[in-house]
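Example: Condensin-2 complex subunit G2.
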Amino acid sequence: MEKRLRSSLQSSAEEFLSLAQKQSLKSSKPILKSLIHKITPNSDLSSSLPISLHRSISHSIQSFQKLLQPNPRRSPNPSPSKSPPTKRHRRSSRHSKTPVDPEPDRHEFDVGKEKKKLLKDLEILAYIAVLCVTHPKKAFSPSDLLPGVRALHDNLILFDSDSVLLSEIANLCEEWWKENLPGRETLISQSLPFLLSKSLTLKRKVDLHRVYSLREAFALFDYEDESIEDLKLLLIRCVIAPLYLKTDDGRRFLAFVFGLSNQLVKEMLAMIRSQIPFGRKSMLEAYGDILFRAWKAAEGDSKGELEDGFLQGLIDGAIHASSPALAASIRRVLGGFISQRTTEGVEKLLFRLTEPVIFRSLQVANSNVRQNALHLLLDMFPLEDPDSTKEVKDTLLDKQFFLLERLLADDCPDVRVVAVEGSCRILHLFWEIIPSASITKTITKIFDDMSHDICIEVRLSTLNGIIYLLGNPQSHEILKVLLPRLGHLMLDNTVSTRAAVADLLLLIRDIRNFQFHKVVVLDVLLTTLANDQPLVAQKITKLLIPSYFPSKVPVEEACSRCITLIKRSPMAGARFCEFAVSEGASIKSLMELFRVFISLILSPDKLDADQMEGLLVAASYLCNSLASEPCYKCALNKLLDGEKVKFLFAAASTARAQSSVIKIVSTISPDEAAGLFEECMGLVTNCSGISDNVERQAEVRSAHKLFLSCDGFDDMFEALTVRLQKTAYRCHIKFGTEIPKNSFSSTKRKKSMSSGKISAKWKCVGGKKAFDFEKDYSIAVGIAWQIRDLLISEDSRKAILGSQTLELSFIALKIISEVSIMQCMHCEYMDTSPILAYTVLALHMTLQNVSISIQKDCGTRNNSTDSSRSLPEAKKLLGAGDSGKYSKLPSELGQANSKTAGSHRRGNKEPQTDASSPSAHDSFNIEQKRVLIKVKMLTASLKSMVDAAMVGFLSHYYGQLLKFTSRYVQFIISALGQQSHDQFQFEEEDLKDIVVCVKSSFTYAAKLLNLVHRAVSEASPLPPEAFDVASNLLDLITSIELHLGSGKAASLVAAAKPWLPDLILALGSGNILKETQGEGIHFHASDHIKVHFPSWLLSLARTELSEMSEVSPEKDDDGRVSESEDFPVFKKLLGMIVTLLKGNPNVLDAVGVIFLTGSVVGLERKDFGLVLGPVHFVCMKLFSRDDKEWGDMMLASLQGIYPQIERELEEENDEDGRQKLHSAKELLEPVWMYHIYETGRVAMME
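Written out as structure tokens, the predicted fold is:
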């Protein structure tokens, strides 16, 4: 092929080009390059080849253009004869294989084939043109080559289907421009947009580099011409293209584009401005760099637009931003200039733009503006005019320090936080140039005032600022004196602050001439190590490990130092051993330390109880760390034989020490644990009061672990079951509670501690000996807590569910739970643990398909396998809410089980009461405790039922669940009302417990609403009780705020916020049901409100009236609306509800009717404040004043309200009432008139 091409080239240019077009571009590139680059400037081909090349290019382009023109399906010159058309075959099986008219398809195929051939020819010709342009000896005249090159460029848009040809043409135009050949300005109008679009599409750096190398060509366009719009759009796209923002060439190119056109500058700045609120840090920093480059190169109007338009706007925006995040984003863009302030002109520019606004903004009333301005000042510090005198600069610097000192005492904690950290940053960076008086004044205020600030964040920022300041060695001399003033922060009540102090101590430990124990005394460190959270304790361990277990001394000395620590502070030493491994101590050294500990414990040397406890706890921690390594676990096992284990347990004189021995044995030597079973059994069975004792909980968990590891869990669980049976039997004796007949297990187990005796348990636990029921019940509560705790772990849960005494423990828990519920108002010691343990156990049994059989009095057996039977107490609790007032809820709960009530009558059993008559004060105290117990019981019951519903159980009882929830919430509201009327006052601790229960109950009630909404379908509509729950929950919030204050209400609203959508849907459920299912539906929310008017609507009316200065309603004794109470938290909640409602017009319509119904009730009651409040809320909050597009349901309600307001206006004589009615009429009148005369929707609803 090469010979033929060389021969044709010697013959003529036309023959060479003709033969070249028959070759493949990819394979012929090296040959063509070699042949063309051998042509000399004196050769005839240097003049003939460009001419022939132009002719071939023009011919191919013309042929391609003709193929692009539309062609008729037949010949353009049909025969004039009018012979009839041939008969067309019908499509049938006989002709299915014969195309009806193949000529058009064949023609299209031929056209496509011809296009491909022409494009292939043009690829070769374009490449030859590139070779001619880049000829090393410049053998070809540019004027000869230009016509052909221009033909390719001008028709570039036609070849969009051939990427190879497009690239070759673009390469050709690019090389022409780089070689600065004549006429290059005619080869950019098509090639530049193509290269720009290619770089944006393919996102390759090589394409971006090509665009950047051609940047000067972009200056030739007229950007004011309308035809340039496509190129302008591509350039603006570059502003948000990551490739252009990440690379240096891209940033340089964008900075260059800023100098092309004033109008283009405005559009690019607008694009950047729109990206600032959402841009990432890297994008915003890139914008800052681009703007700085553009500013340096800009002149005239463009520079003015950048400075006085965009940059001034950024500075104003950074100060007045609506959020801290937006202000930070703007400052990142400004950082492109601030970081280049040493560049000539930048410092003066920043001063000129910032000085007029920043000092005024630092002193305004708005704390957000002060904070934003402070951030900006800290970024630009020191703000000064480089052309001013030294006296002026010093005065301005003093002014900045004066404002910083003032902001350190700002009323807003957020401003103080920024001021503290900013002051430390300024001292770190500019220590050398700041006057010593200013340094002393600032740093003293930080240490003396800010470290004692009431705000946690300010104290924490003080520590972080000092840590940063320590990075400047020149500050060390003064800090060495002042740092002890921060020692009190190690006893701060927040973990984050104490952790920051530990970080500070770790930093100064490694600074020469600093001693950390002079900042925080060692005794305080050890106390914190012994009692603090793991985060802080681990940092203190890291701080002390070079002193008390150094790696650079012999291991014997290291062990001696650690023992010294334990003897000085036993629990601190134990915690030190807990974190020693994680802080780099050698495993081998820790093994030796463990041996020393065991030897010291077993030695005859006398140690006090605290030291012995510390050694055992420390050994337990070390054992847990060492046992993770198999080789050390074997060594530990050999170290502790049976006799040593007994000695260890004998030496343990405290419960925690015994728990540590149990942990050690269960971890490394389960076979030696037989001698500990009796002691461990005592721990788990004598468990009264464990639910409130964290230390005893840890001990019992250690015993559980031992029983699991030693295959003794069944014995332990059987012992717990015996105690539960004992308490259940005494419930039967004391209260007459029914006991199932199948109280024994038919299965026998080997080596059971109570083998052969289980069948007689119910009788044996009675006896004739007097008993203390409260003590037995307290033990049962502790066992219930243990069962719940054991069900958390997978191993212990499997052991319980596989236990042969599971049925007996389940029945006993059931009986104790019944008594806990029935007697909670009569016995103060009743607890929720049995109920929670019973329901959790029932859930796990149901999930694992563990069935039990309960034999009734009549002898029938009930196999409980499904969810409804595994939670029978839920049905009883639900049944308690069917009738009566909510204030009677507990007594109704006591009557929920008719059989239990019957057994009460048969046994003539009554709850125990004191023989003596209590005083009034004592009665109130008893009532407080009873209400608290009742709330806890109901909270536990609600929790258990909702948990069951969440895993798919009780789905058929949603209506009853909702009814029970409503009545429970009503009971709490009633109890709070009784307290506010001084019927009794809760003690502070009891009140805290009630608030915790209320928050938990609110969350579970909202979860229930969510479950009900998820279950809604055509076959299962939303229960009408959902509205009651939602309305009562809103009542609860207003009641909490009214009776307990805004602080507790705010915490409840915080818990309610994630569930607001479910609350809103339930609130509008009644009207949605009516709308979707027709007027015949039984439940209608508006009708329900008229019968049971919710208090939250009254509170809404009060909050609205308090905003209307022209309305001053008087407080009335009959409960009418007044402005006497303020509900700021409820008002904030209403704002969140409005925001959500505006997102869904249908729900807005359904809920809006509820508010209007409040006005209807106000009209019926002649309470015109109640009329005006909801109307004002609807017209001014739910809708804007100009928004008249109400939904159908709200318009239907309006049709009843508006005429009635007009009638009341005519009949009302009281001036105050008339004023309120007139205000309500003015608010509704625009909507009324609009739909009467414009849409006619109101008239259609008559």
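The radius of gyration is 44 Å.
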